[in-house]
Amino acid sequence: MMLEITLRHAFPGFMLNAAIKAPPGVTVLFGRSGAGKTTIVNAVAGLLIPDEGRIASGDWVLLDTGRGIRLRPYQRRLGYIFQEGRLFPHMTVRQNLGYGAWFAPKDAPREKMDHVVDMLGIGPLLDRRPAALSGGEKQRVAIGRALLSAPRLILADEPLAALDEERKAEILPYFERLRDEVSIPILYVSHSATEVARLATTVAVLESGQVVRQGQAAEVLGDPAVLPMGAREAGAILTARVVAHHSDGLTELDAKNVPLFLPHIDRKPGEMVRVRIAAHDVMLSRNRPEGLSALNILPGVAQEIHLGEGPGAIIAIETQAGRLLARITRRSVQALELVPGAQVHAIIKTVSVAPSAIGGGGPEKR
Amino acid sequence: MTNWLGPDEWSAVALSLQVSFWATLVSLPLGVFVAYALARWNFPGKQLLNGLVHLPLILPPVVTGYLLLLTMGTKGPIGGFLAELGIVFAFRWTGAALAAGVMAFPLMVRAIRLSIEAVDPRLEQASATLGASPLWVFLTVTLPMTLPGILVGAILAFAKAMGEFGATITFVSNIPGQTRTIPSAIYAFLQVPGGEDSALKLVIVSIVIAMSALLLSEIVSRRVAARLEGR
Lengths: 366, 231
Hints:
- The structure holds two protein chains of two kinds.
- Chain A is α+β, with helices and mostly antiparallel strands.
- Chain A folds into two domains: 3-221, P-loop containing nucleotide triphosphate hydrolases (Rossmann fold, 3-Layer(aba) Sandwich); 235-365, CATH 2.40.50.100.
- Helix content of chain A is 21%, strand content 37%.
- Chain A is globular and about 65 Å long.
- Chain A starts with a strand and ends in a 6-residue tail after the last strand.
- Chain B has a single domain, classed as MetI-like fold, CATH 1.10.3720.10.
- Chain B has helices at residues 7-40, 46-58, 61-72, 77-84, 93-117, 121-129, 134-163, 166-172, 182-191, 196-228.
- The longest helix of chain B has 34 residues, at 7-40.
- At the A-B interface, strand 7 and helix 2 of A face helix 6 and helix 7 of B.
- Chain B: InterPro entries: MetI-like (IPR000515), MetI-like_sf (IPR035906), ModB_ABC (IPR011867).
């Protein structure tokens, strides 16, 4: 199933004009606040009626202004996970979870309540009311409620933005499980590079109402010309397999036959992981450096070189392990005589990779 | 109680309760509907409807009563039509209930409207995305969350109906056993020598009923609020 979205909508002082294709898996709408991400999701949900547009997946047409088709929100069969949860305060967690299922067609393929409760770890909360839940618990219940409504598509509008770092780390794995264990496509709005790196199968980058880049996550995040959140947030993703946990606390990974050493990762050998390598954590050297403390030295070839407006530059490096981004100064670009095609070594300090930058392997393993 | 109250007084109390009960019960669905329309919908003539609903609150009650007499009396345009169907308001207890209901309506609508406006529309959106049609959204989200307000509105209306005097006496007069509610009865007792005793008893009954209604609404709305807060 491929969800195709074409929208045109004029706001005072802002024009949304976007075409997005969302294949199975997680499609992240990535961009700054005000770029039009939530507008798109609301249009898909039917909470906003665009001036013009078509939203359809095969012969399942949610909206087609040209043909005068416009399903009401309750006819769309979507699971919308809102930023603020929006649980019904007068119902228990159990009633909240069952709410959508009650309205779903009886023959709709649906998740089992027990399985979802288990997956989200909300069993002990079932008889409580939302007011007695923590922020993270509320959001887990909201995920379950959306999932149990037998949706054909899940929408998530910055579901982690209202949570602190600890809670985010608590919820992110559930979205990874959703992506990997449930076959429902997910449209996910985010302005967090970490979330994109961990969750996205496909990324659509939005800037002031336009889609500036769209494609596979590794491809889009590895493009130095596409930096929706600025050079400071740039970073590429590598997919790797856990090889072994060493006694000194390091985990050895294998990224397409290139060994990577990272701080301990809580996953079993053989599992696939996605690692986000921030561009500012990558150093470059023309010769293979020696006597260096950094454990990961990846030979590669410089590709695009993107000079910013400030003193910095972002270099894309094609290595055997995958594409990396490095953020260095323009001065260094000159000093190293970096041009596309130049041989370089990318150096990644082991300790610079935070645990939050490592997620489940997800779609790439399938 | 029947011994303490004479038959005339008892009749006034029973009639008042009957009139107020039916006035509240019948106007409640309409009150919820009008409050919802005023709180959530935009339509031409909204301000007119709002004004119309509030009119009994600002007009002298006698004027409202007289207008009711003109329109709903057996010779009035609406009253005449209804009379042919066998529904007669003039000089009957039903007329007293109508007058009380009309006079209490603004209070009821105000209370309910406030509580509907306090329901977060984003919860109603969430309900819609989960597959609830507008009617189901109203029944499963808006209505239960508005319940305390509806209750307060109903009790206010009931209390107002118990005390209604001007419009009632103008519209349906002061007929013992038919339209002589507590306020009319108090008024009538005070017009005759030696009636102060009976009047005072009815005053006490009024106070007791009003206070119990208030207390009841307080208890129930606290319970509901506690439930919403997860306690």
